[in-house]
Amino acid sequence: MLFDTHCHLDFDEFDGDRAAVWQSCRDSGVVKLMIPGVTPGNQWDRSGRLAEQEPGIYYSLGVHPCWLTPWHNTPVGQVMAGWSADIDRHLQSPQCRALGETGLDKRIETSLAVQVDWFEWHLTLAQQHRRPLILHCVHAHAELLALLKRNKPVAGGVVHAFNGSYDIAREYWSLGIYLGIGGTITYARANKTRNAVQRMPLEALVLETDAPDMPLQGRQGQRNSPVFLTDVATCLAQLHNQSLAVIAQQTYSNSCRLFGLTENHNR
Ligand SMILES: [Zn+2]
Predict the structure, then answer these.
(1) Which of the ends of the chain has fewer CB neighbours closer than 10 A, N or C?
(2) Which residues are annotated as a binding site?
(3) pLDDT tens series, the chain, 267 aa
């Protein structure tokens, strides 16, 4: 059994065949899936509905750093006060398991100062409600690690689409942050990440596709799908010189621990 810890199954790209995709996931052993929150309102509600309808699907509450453009000039507290009833309602849902995705991204126009404010908002809520954080980090590991060290997340979290060095990987893991392993490791040129993933203990790793983004090697230009999680697991098995069964069992159980779920695959 496999757990896709980061999949945007709610995105438009799946509107035509969402039910079929989820069915083929279950047929191929992908029995649990986490939909990360990216923007308040409809997106949270849509993922919440999906999670309610489909056993095995969970969601999180968050505002992605790449979706902050409408609020560059409004303090986060003021923006989120308008959503407080929604936040309370979602946090009461047993399918809403985490906060995020949040974090720092140096590729985007939004200033790092604004991104830090929004990250702090998520972290505060995560501490209050003892929920794990789903972290997004692009070219900003030093800055993000400094923030996490100053206020260590009580329920841990996961740094999704991990692509750093072994030293960075170890720093996250020492803070109780799992490493989200996705399609990156299927590319031979991703030496640094493949090396880090190879040296890290399996106890620190969870699997993800980030579908519809981040296609695997050989599928560039196509829509990524949670069905391909098996290929990420196979690649990790090769890197760790382990059987697929061992990789599946260990990462599945890590993911359940991360999101506070039982390992029963029906719920
Ligand atoms: Zn994402």
Answers:
(1) C
(2) 6, 8, 101, 136, 160, 210
(3) 999 999 999 999 999 999 999 999 999 999 999 999 999 999 999 999 999 999 999 999 999 999 999 999 999 999 999 999 999 999 999 999 999 999 999 999 999 999 999 999 999 999 999 999 999 999 999 999 999 999 999 999 999 999 999 999 999 999 999 999 999 999 999 999 999 999 999 999 999 999 999 999 999 999 999 999 999 999 999 999 999 999 999 999 999 999 999 887 654
Residues 96 and 60: their CA atoms lie apart, in Å, by 5
Expressed in percent and rounded to 5, the helix, strand and coil fractions of the chain are 50, 15, 35
Report the separation in Å between the CA atom of 101 and the middle of ligand 1, taken as the mean of its atom positions.
Answer: 7
Correct CATH for 2-258 of 3.40.630.10, 3.30.2270.10, 3.90.1200.10, 3.20.20.140: 3.20.20.140
Angstrom CA distances, 238 to 162, 175, 185, 197, 247, stand at: 18, 27, 11, 11, 10
CA of 173 to the centre of ligand 1 (A): 20
Distance 53 CA to ligand 1 centre (A): 22
Ligand 1 centre to CA of 109 (Å) is 18
Span from the CA of 105 to the centroid of ligand 1 (angstroms): 12
Of the chain, the end-to-end C-alpha distance in Å amounts to 13
